[in-house]
Amino acid sequence: MLIAKLESALVDAKNAQRSGSYVCPACGHRVVLHRGTRVQPYFAHRPAAPCTFPGEGETAQHVMGKRQLAAFFADWGTVTLERVLPTIQQRADCWIAHQPRAIALEFQCSPISREDVAARTQGYRDVGAYPFWLLGKRYAQQRLGWRLIDRFAGWLKGWGLCLLFWDVDRQQVRVDHHICQAATGEYQCQQTWVGSLAALVQGPHRRQWWPEPNLARFRWELDRDLRRSSDTLKPLQTAVYLTGHHLAGFPESLVTTQVTPPLFGRGVLLWRIVVAAWLFEHVLFSFATAQRLGEEAFRLVGGATAAVRFQVPLVVTHALETLLTDLVTARFLKRETNGWRVMAQPQWAADYTAWLENDEKKLG
Ligand SMILES: [Zn+2]
Are strands 187-194 and 172-181 parallel, antiparallel or unpaired? Predict the structure, then answer.
């Protein structure tokens, strides 16, 4: 840690004298000043009497990063390092006295559970602060996936849904922004390095673009996972099978290039396939029926309606509206006063292996 208590005053390690009798401002235990030639000065609990206040173990990255972040965010208000908040049993790495709302910076370098992220986020909200998470190297090396998004992603003006990483060597923020999910399920984002607070506030200047989903690969992976009888696909396969179809033989007409919020589990395309299989069992159906089936299919594809730091209201409703509009445009459905009438059945592959052979030729 960077801040310790000497008698009743808080002392920054960089100004501390070796002789002082320092204690931890959070738990009151004795701490020792460390200063070497390679590392910045810091205080540490003695191994025999570790900190009893929740928080993460100190690494060189964490100690150095906190100081860098305090400088980076200085324009937003007076920054206090390691602000102890006894009422919520938390210690913010940096506390920014921002107006109208204080900002609690967490520079997360060590592993942390979803429950702990949720509890700390809520703690800061309870004391009226905006929780701002910046992730360390361990997280920067991870592949963008639901585990990261679920715990740490949040909305930031201009950047959409994003993850922020602090790079101690570059002393810059890496913003993984406009996080979304391709129809085929891959999580995707744009990445921008930001060297100043002004640039962070300004937002990205490049336009976003997304690659077309790779359908041949999607079908191939779907088939592979079905052969391996993947646990996540089994309920989807069963649902579709009971309507007389095979999951991998899905109609081409259900394919979409739309991206969705990253909440769709295995992706909106699988969701559309299951919903369509169910809808086309009807002659006529209402929006309430479609909504019920949509929610059920959302559960089957492993969808989530909210993460720790963000939620997207009506995510299923919006996907459903798009699907119904697409099916009306393709003349499979007709809008009527009380719902939708089925006009034609989308073409499923009777023998889905024919599709695969076809795709293999395309791939080959
Ligand atoms: Zn302590």
Answer: antiparallel
